[in-house]
Amino acid sequence: MTAAAGAGAAAPAASAGAGAATARAAAPAPATASATATAAAAAAADYGAPGPYATAVEVGAVTTLYYPRDIASSDRRHPVIVWGNGTFAFPVVYRDLLLHWASHGFVVAAANTPQSNPGISMRAGIDLLSRRDADPGSPFHDAVDLEHIGASGHSQGGAAAIVVGADPRIDTVLPIQPGPLADIDGVDVPAFLMAGQRDSIVLPFLVRAFYDDADHIPAVYGELRGADHFTVVGAPGPFAAPTTAWFRAHLMGDGAARAQFLGPGCGICADGGTWSDVRRNALASR
């Protein structure tokens, strides 16, 4: 089943068998940025706005895909985000956030399971896109950047993002209010751990415990001011901009986005209106 959604308007989805573009270019490897905190803060507002791509949705048995609608004719390869849901939730609960990422050029593979903690269904999303990318009859043929993959999720799915982060195919993890059943010691890629100031289900100190244990990787902890456990559900509100910026930094080589989190500028560190607490370890601060 395929449905389409534009940035604010519905549109026909790309159909299978559409002509694949030639000479697809993978997203560039991340590069070090030297933008000032002021410039980074201005860029953050753009990451919260819809991206340039109209979007489409394909609901499968194991995985729901959110992706740029014109991917079959795109002249580039699109990085991947695998997603895990919270307990008893399905991808449709987070549809607005996942479509937001797709509008910025990502292919999102969301696991169709309300019990995502083991990470099996999230890994299956990578396997699915690998097959689609290799299939000449698929609109995803030669259009998926399998060299740049991030893992994210909410609550139980946040823990799953940490679990999946041990997979060598993953380049970064972004757990949102992650549950406790994960071990970040197995993750060897940069991590952005997000908490909500008013979360009474996954208390902020539980998310900080993951951050404190992540001293072997570049790690950032961000606590959104006023956010509770369900702020990310439906319209993603304050979660849209920082999550998009993090993935653009690590999967697309966006230097302005990188300056939001890493190096001396740290745009989010200067944004006390959005964040009630921001912490970075030594590896992220360099």
UniProtKB/TrEMBL annotation:
Residues 23-262 form the PET hydrolase/cutinase-like domain. Residues 1-20 form the signal peptide. The keyword Signal applies. The keyword Signal applies. InterPro entries: AB_hydrolase_fold, PET_hydrolase/cutinase-like. Keywords: Plasmid, Signal. This is Acetylxylan esterase. The lineage of its organism: Bacteria, Bacillati, Actinomycetota, Actinomycetes, Kitasatosporales.
